[in-house]
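Late entry, evening session. Most of the bench is empty. Finally got around to the prediction I had been postponing all week. Sequence below, unchanged from the version circulated by S.P.
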Amino acid sequence: MRHFEHIPWLTCSSRSSGERPEVSRKPCDLQMFLEDVREEIEAFLNSSGIRFRVEAVGSPTLRIDPEQMKRVLNNLVGNAREAMEEAGEVVLTVAENQEHLLFRVSDTGKGIPHSNGFSIRF
């Protein structure tokens, strides 16, 4: 089982409270998790003319809080949607290395210049 660390404060509904949300990690199959995420996000993007695609290799079992992780991914996709001026595509890519999974959300919007970008390790 692959352990997946994420940053709970990113998923906090009320950032002004300063409290970190309760994290309830449990075993989660990556492919089943991604299917749930895909269905939710496609429903969210459906009326905007934006396509959503998931690219993932493998199917490790993760130990995550699936609801908190869905909230993080939904927030990132929501940000991508807001930044897109017209129809396009949002892609969620999940890549695996020896110790981590990398979740990357990319879109066809104008974006942030690479020099101003940032990276968050979950």
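Two things to note before I forget:
The helical segments are 30-45, 66-83.
The chain has two helices and six strands.
Will write this up properly tomorrow.
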